[in-house]
Each structure stands twice: as structure tokens, then as C-alpha cells.
Amino acid sequence: MSIQEGKVLGIAYNVIPVANLEKSGEWFVEHLGFNIRHKTEDSLSLFIGNRPILHLLKSDHESRAVFQIGEWKKWVTTFFTNDIKSLHTKLKSKQLKVGEISYEGENGNFFTLEDIDGNLYDIWEHNDCELNF
What we know:
This protein has 133 residues and is α+β, with helices and mostly antiparallel strands. The protein is 17% helix and 38% strand. The chain has helices at residues 21-32, 84-93; strands at 14-18, 35-37, 43-48, 51-58, 66-69, 72-75, 77-80, 97-98, 102-103, 109-114, 120-125. Strands 7, 8, 9, 10 and 11 form a five-stranded mixed beta sheet that branches. Strands 1-4-3-2 form a four-stranded mixed beta sheet, with helices on one face. A hairpin with a 5-residue loop joins strand 9 (102-103) and strand 10. It starts with 13 loop residues before the first strand and ends in an 8-residue tail after the last strand.
């Protein structure tokens, strides 16, 4: 398969508002294993290896990367894992705000994770999905 010009090939990264750039960057490095690149006074990029994942922007506004439908908080970003049980156990043992694992058959397995700024993420495991990293 060849890459065609003028096509969207995927999502490069998501932009996330944070109150304290240093603390938030350290949180992602410690708990999710990301590495920091392209740091400025007001932003930094988080990578896994050579792949961009998130771009954190310092924000003094109260809005966060989360929205609500009825009573349910929803996330804007979903991370992928190949071992949801181990990751869930590890994050929970660090006293992080994680939801319970939801086993949803052919849709895969999920749980939510909240960062120190109140941004909400979904963690997803699916064995029948093509993701290129």
C-alpha cells in the first residue's frame, strides 16, 4: 500500500490545557512513560519514543480536556495499551484517579484516567484493531 498525497493519515497529537507545565509534564513521564521534547515557557510536547502524543499548553483558564453528556464525564483522548490489566493495576497502585475496567466484547476493554489537572483520558485495549506507531 502506498501513501497517497492529500490524505489524512492519522492523528499526530492532541493539545491539552494544564495549570502547571512542569508538574504535568513530570506526571506524564512518571506514570505513562512519555518523554518531553520541544519545551518552551508555555508549552511542551510529550512523545513515546519518536512519536508525538500530547502537546501540553499552560492555561490559567478553568476549561479542561473533558466534557459532559448528562451525568457522564467524557474524554477527548484515548490511549492504546496491549495489556490493560497490568497498566490498570500499576496506575491504581500509585493512587491515581482511574475508573474500573469495562469489558465490552468486540469493542475491547476500557478504563478512564484523570490527570492532575482534571483532564480525562480513556485507556483502550483491543486485539483486532490496526494501529501504526
